[in-house]
From TrEMBL:
InterPro entries: F-box-like_dom_sf, F-box_dom, Leu-rich_rpt, Leu-rich_rpt_Cys-con_subtyp, LRR_dom_sf, TPR-like_helical_dom_sf
SUPFAM superfamilies the record matches: F-box domain, RNI-like, TPR-like
Name of the protein in its database record: Dia2p
Limits of the F-box domain: 218-265
GO biological process annotation, one example: SCF-dependent proteasomal ubiquitin-dependent protein catabolic process
Organism superkingdom: Eukaryota
Pfam family of the protein (one): F-box
GO (cellular component) term, any one: SCF ubiquitin ligase complex
Length: 746
């Protein structure tokens, strides 16, 4: 869009020669008004204001002779009785448009200045009074607004409904502001007040029993049967129930009678004084009934770092025995695994006997490895989440210093797990392999900058979690001196695994992971696989060559299909996999297209699309072959793909018929793609998915960080209902590290 016909120079004279006609002179202003109006309607108020301002400068640059010729062209008078200056015929309209722009931009002071200027230039224009009054109302200048509105009504002989409504609105607000001040009283209103006062006096003279009988009050909590109250209380959160108990003693007794309704306690963050009050509340109310209570979740974190130890000690030692907690979320970053284990032992086993889920944000002690003893203290534990934010290593122990593989050397020296005994202060060693037969989910998250170890490494190697179904590992360092870890041989211990999440780990390569899937039947029913590398490794090609064998041996088969055929979600974001490797996974039907619902290949630099002039054919992803075999996909993530542009997007537009089940599409942070190809894709998607009610739009589209996509295109997509929900934030931060965008507690 060009703005070259408008100048910012106030001395500019658009008339080049005396022979120009008035209409020719006026063409510049008319074009500016037309352009500004179009920008205003599209929501570009700042640009529209600039256009109108420049048009006003052009009008001011005209001489009186030029203005007379323009007014003659419009058949307007060219002489005023007061000999005042003549203005351009569109001068008032331009000022009014500028005023409207200021109002939309919420610049009320400038809007008021322009509207008052309008009133001086054209006092008989009712529209000017309406706009000026509206601006004063927004500024809450009630007196000036009332005067301006009254003056406008006088000019139009009280014939403007809009001004009358504004005047009534101003009067109502002025009455509210004048409480306690002298004001005019309407005689009719005074008569109504007197009658109302008389009726009130009559009611006061009635006996109290009559008044009580005639006034109906409903106490929802107090009058309802006690058996019905639990059904109502179950819909309130714990915080809401505590607030309701403060209404009156009757409500408090009713609520505390139904302690089963208190399911979750979120004490994050809390200081020690308030935590003592919380423990007293549990002791006073839950112990008086002599029955067992089950809390679904307790979440505790200390507001003050120095109080973390005292809060944890009080929690473990003073928790009433009648309370069983199913899920405990404890955030104590300064406490170590050793301190947590000792507090658990001292507090007794009753607290952890029926604990089903445990989440700990603590400091790791690589020299003690008490995280296994923590698991052993909770015999019924089904889910453990360990978030290590720091590492504490004794100064004298050089083998376990941060940055070395000391913990792995210790692990290699001992074939069996060593369990320190509490009585001997961790001096006695018991050789025993403990099987955690109840544990189903393990989440291990480490701060890679501070922890250079692999917690739980020994237990994973020895297969101490036979029923494990979900495993999340991020931020750890795979030991270079242990080939079983680097080659993922330890995954053979978990045949029942349903979800595997490996991300941002050092010495962790997807190529070695695929080698395991190639030659070993690892899983029976893996449904979700997430594997993300933290740096770029050599390009991965799906090598299907059989291993070299002797003549008498039968060549081993490939197990890609057995391991991947039940996948519902595949996330290879940020890995070194090539486009040809992913194509082969689909063409050879290693991935079952009838089951796979989600595919994430964002930020994969070795995946290129056709028509992109790729350097090697092995990097090309055959979009047609992939989408044809994965026809049940509901979610596709193509973010951070350098090869995705308008040219390569055509391959997706052509294959839209194979995306009949697609609901969510993420193409964020692709800086070369424009709104044209996105619009064509969405239009094609809607046309190819027609139903009886019309075209079916895409449920969700993410184009954050796509700087080449115009906001006009985004508004058009929303207006035409091509997408139910679209996210478009140009300044969205690019995230690559493991964090809130990757994992959430579930």
């Amino acid at each position: 869009m060009s703005y070259k016909f408008i100048t910012k120079n106030k001395k500019y004279t658009p008339m080049s020669s005396p022979g120009n006609s008035g209409v020719a002179i006026d063409s510049t202003v008319l074009k500016a008004i037309e352009l500004g109006t179009r920008l205003f309607k599209s929501g570009e108020y700042l640009q529209a204001k600039r256009i109108f301002t420049n048009a006003l400068r052009v009008c001011d640059s005209y001489s009186q002779e030029q203005i007379m010729r323009i007014r003659n062209a419009y058949q307007l008078d060219t002489a005023r009785p007061d000999n005042k200056r003549l203005y351009h015929p569109r001068y008032i309209k331009i000022l009014d448009n500028i005023c409207a722009c200021y109002e939309k931009l919420n610049d009320l002071k400038s809007c008021l200045d322009v509207s008052q200027r309008l009133l001086k230039l054209e006092p008989g224009n009712i529209k000017c009074y309406i706009r000026c009054t509206r601006t004063l109302i927004k500024l809450k200048d009630w007196k000036r607004a009332y005067k301006t509105c009254s003056r406008g009504l006088q000019l139009c002989n009280n014939d403007s409904n809009h001004l009358r409504q504004q005047k009534q609105f101003i009067k109502n607000n002025m009455v509210q502001k004048q409480d306690g001040k002298r004001s005019y009283i309407d005689p009719s209103e005074e008569t109504k007040i007197a009658k109302k006062r008389k009726n009130n006096n009559f009611l006061e003279s009635l006996p109290k029993k009559k008044i009580k009988g005639s006034t109906k009050k409903t106490d929802l909590v107090g009058n309802l049967p006690i058996e019905i109250l639990p059904i109502i209380f179950q819909r309130f959160t714990t915080n809401e129930l505590v607030t309701l108990s403060l209404v009156c003693n009757k409500w408090r007794d009713k609520i505390l009678y139904h302690l089963d309704c208190f399911q979750e306690f979120n004490l994050a963050p809390i200081n020690f004084k308030n935590f003592v009050k919380f423990m007293d509340f549990l002791q006073q109310n839950f112990t008086r009934t002599y029955r067992k209570y089950i809390l679904s979740q307790v979440k505790v974190s200390s507001r003050i770092t120095s109080e973390e130890l005292r809060i944890t000690q009080l929690l473990f030692s003073k928790m009433p025995k009648c309370i069983n907690i199913e899920r405990l979320i404890l955030s104590m970053p300064t406490l170590t695994t050793t301190q947590i284990f000792k507090l658990m032992v001292r507090g007794g086993t009753d607290f952890f006997a029926r604990l089903l889920e445990l989440s700990l944000m603590i400091t790791y002690r690589p020299d003690k490895q008490h995280e296994l003893e923590i698991l052993q203290t909770c015999p019924l534990l089904k889910k453990i989440e360990l978030i290590f934010v720091n590492s504490l290593v004794p100064i004298f122990d050089g083998n376990n210093s941060v940055g070395r593989d000391g913990s792995f050397n210790v692990m290699a020296r001992h074939t069996n797990m060593q369990i320190p005994t509490v009585d001997n202060d961790e001096q006695g060693i018991v050789e025993e392999k403990v099987i955690y037969s109840e544990l189903e989910k393990i989440t291990l998250i480490c701060d890679k900058k501070k922890i250079k170890n692999f917690p739980l490494c020994r237990a994973l190697l020895r297969g101490q979690f036979p029923l494990l179904q979900k495993l999340t590992i991020t931020g750890v360092t795979f030991p270079m001196n242990n080939q079983d870890i680097i080659n993922f041989q330890w995954l053979l211990n978990f045949p029942d695994l349903k979800e595997l999440w490996i991300e941002d780990n050092d010495n962790c390569e997807l190529s070695k992971f695929l080698q395991l899937l190639k030659f070993s039947n690892v899983w029976k029913n893996l449904e979700k696989l997430t594997f993300r590398e933290n740096k770029l490794y050599p390009i991965i090609n799906l090598d299907e060559d059989q291993p070299v064998t002797n003549d008498n041996e039968v060549p081993s088969m490939l197990f890609y299909k057995e391991n991947l055929q039940n996948l519902e979600k595949l996330d290879l974001m940020g890995t070194s996999i090539s486009g040809s490797a992913l194509t082969r996974l689909c063409e050879q039907e290693y991935l079952d297209g009838r089951k796979l619902r989600s595919l994430n290949i964002g930020n994969c630099p070795n995946i290129q699309f056709p028509n992109n002039h790729a350097h090697a054919a092995r990097m090309i992803l055959d979009v047609n072959a992939v989408l044809k075999r994965l026809s049940k996909l509901e979610e596709i993530n193509l973010s951070h793909l350098s090869s995705l542009n308008d040219s390569t997007m055509k391959s997706f537009i052509i294959n839209v018929p194979f995306l009949e089940n697609l609901k969510r599409l993420d193409i964020s942070h692709n800086f070369e793609i424009t709104g044209i190809s996105i619009y064509e894709f969405l239009k094609k998607f809607q046309m190819d998915h027609d139903n009886e009610a019309g075209g079916q739009p895409l449920a969700y589209l993410n184009i954050d960080g796509c700087s080449q996509v115009s906001h006009i295109t985004v508004n058009m997509i929303r207006a035409q209902n091509l997408v139910t929900q679209v996210d478009c934030v140009y300044e969205r931060d690019v995230w690559r590290k493991f964090g809130i965008n990757s994992y959430s507690y579930s």
